[in-house]
Write a structure and sequence with these properties.
Helix content: 40-55%
Shape: globular
CATH architecture of the largest domain: Alpha-Beta Barrel
Strand content: 5-15%
CATH class of the largest domain: Alpha Beta
CATH topology of the largest domain: TIM Barrel
Number of strands: 11
CATH superfamily of the largest domain: Aldolase class I
Radius of gyration: 20 Å
Order of helices and strands: EHEEHHEHEHHEHEHEHEHHHHHEE
Distance between the termini: 19 Å
Largest sheet: 9 strands, parallel
Bound molecules: flavin mononucleotide
């Protein structure tokens, strides 16, 4: 299993939390290749902590030359693997022929893969992120399989497939039957990782059973719930998956701010950046709406901690709340649970 690439979310701080619960592999947030070459700040934020391995850097291509140089720079920075994103449905990337735009251009997709594969050291694995097609048309399916086949021929190490089309963006359900078909097609010639609708621990095992994929990528299911990785390990070892009680959740959420401070060193920025995580954390709280509003007002570390003191507990004393039963949202505000706020700035 891997922590998925999540632009705006899967930074060093989130990855550290997920790894503390056993996430064995992570893909960094997708980045445009050229800024990696130009911006010292981006490189600073992408610097890796010692515990944050193994990890892939994910890039979305501008030109083959830039992608190659960016990939080499990232390898020098300590990323063990490089992933090319050919899946992102964000319009401004599509307009420039990046991300999911490749799903309409198999020849260009394979040329890019080939160029980057040749440029990075042979021992550095190259992986690919795809969706199941540009849209649902038969031509689109054909293109998907052409790219898949091209990647296999090039000896690409792994492909993560998100079971939605580019046109579909995040609507509806991921098509796990399409993932099963892709798995049958690739056999064991490449590592196929499934992505889409892994929201709770049981979904990991359901996807493996349904599709036969070699691995799963946990995306939205890990935002606000980094302990999902521990729950997977619980189930693998035949135990009931444990949901942390509110005191433990409070500690994790507090620690998130500390980690983000170590990474960004700017309290105002971190306060704003973590608000969206607060929305996700609040989903598992019985007073979700009030906790969400409290997180949304955070400007500083002190604000963040006082939300936790009030709603999760303080000095080892739990807040006055009903017991945690499982990892399902327990909000009294069902409407709050329908939307996925992360999608507003989703990058793939
Ligand atoms: C906020 C957000 C950001 C994402 N960023 C990326 C990204 O940078 N690169 C990528 O390949 N996929 C990205 N994705 C897609 C996820 O990795 C995953 O494929 C998708 O969310 C489907 O999985 P899920 O339904 O389990 O969330 C993003 C998704 C979300 C919601």
């Amino acid at each position: 299993m891997q922590l998925a690439a999540l632009a705006g979310y899967s930074d060093g701080a989130m990855r550290t939390l997920c790894r503390s619960f056993g996430a064995p592999y992570a893909v960094g947030e997708m980045i445009l290749d050229a800024p990696v070459l130009i911006s010292k700040t981006i490189r600073k934020h992408m610097r890796l902590w010692d515990h944050d391995h193994p990890i892939a850097a994910q890039i979305t291509c501008s030109t083959p030359e830039n992608s190659t140089l960016a990939a080499q720079t990232l390898v020098d920075m300590g990323y063990e693997a490089i992933e090319l994103n050919m899946a992102c449905p964000v319009t401004k990337l599509l307009r420039r022929g990046r991300g999911g735009a490749f799903m309409k251009e198999p020849t260009r997709a394979i040329e890019y893969l080939e160029t980057v594969r040749r440029a990075i050291p042979p021992e550095v694995p190259l992986s690919l992120k795809l969706r199941i097609g540009w849209d649902e048309s038969p031509e689109s399916q054909k293109t998907f399989y052409t790219i898949l086949d091209g990647a296999i021929q090039l000896g690409i190490a792994a492909i993560t497939v998100h079971g939605r089309t580019v046109v579909q963006q995040y609507r509806g359900f991921a098509d796990w039957d399409a993932l099963a078909k892709a798995r049958k097609f690739v056999g064991n010639s490449i590592c196929l990782v499934g992505s889409g609708d892994i929201m709770k621990v049981q979904d990991v095992f359901r996807m493996l059973d349904h599709t036969g994929v070699h691995g799963v990528s946990i995306a939205r299911g890990a935002i606000g719930k980094p302990w999902i990785f521990r729950q997977v390990l619980d189930m693998m070892q035949g135990r009931e998956p444990v949901t942390p009680d509110y005191i433990e959740q409070g500690k994790i959420i507090r620690h998130h701010f500390d980690l983000a401070m170590q990474l960004y060193k700017d309290e105002g920025f971190v306060g704003r950046h973590l608000r969206k995580f607060g929305i996700y954390y609040s989903k598992f709280h019985p007073h979700a709406k009030r906790v969400r509003l409290a997180f949304l007002a955070v400007k500083s570390n002190a604000d963040w901690n006082s939300v936790i003191d009030e709603w999760y507990g303080k000095d080892g004393q739990p807040a006055n709340l009903p017991p945690v039963t499982d990892d399902q949202p327990v909000s009294e505000d069902q409407d709050l649970l329908m939307g996925e706020p992360g999608e507003l700035d989703a990058a793939d």
